[in-house]
Amino acid sequence: MITVDEARALVLDLAPEMETEQVPLAEAAERVLAAEVTANRDQPPFAASSMDGYAVKATEVELHAMFKVIGEATAGQRFDGTVGPGQAVRIFTGAPVPDGADFIVIQEDTQRRGDLLTITDEPGPKTNIRPAGVDFRVGSTLSAPRRLNARDLALLAAMNVPAVPVARKPQIALIATGNELVMPGETPGPDQIIASNSFGLKALLEDAGAHVRMLPIARDTIKSLEIALNLAQGADVVVTIGGASVGDYDLVGEASEKLGLQQSFYKVRMRPGKPLMAGQLGEAAMVGLPGNPVSAMVCGYVFLVPMVRRMLGLTPAGPEVKQARLASPLPANGPREHYMRAWLGDEGLSAFDDQDSSLLGVLARSNALIVRPPHDPERASGEIVQYLPI
Ligand SMILES: Nc1nc2c(c(=O)[nH]1)N[C@H]1C(S)=C(S)[C@@H](COP(=O)(O)OP(=O)(O)OC[C@H]3O[C@@H](n4cnc5c(N)ncnc54)[C@H](O)[C@@H]3O)O[C@H]1N2
Ligand code: MOO
Question: What Pfam families does the entry give (predicted)?
Answer without folding.
Answer: MoCF_biosynth (PF00994), MoeA_C (PF03454), MoeA_N (PF03453)
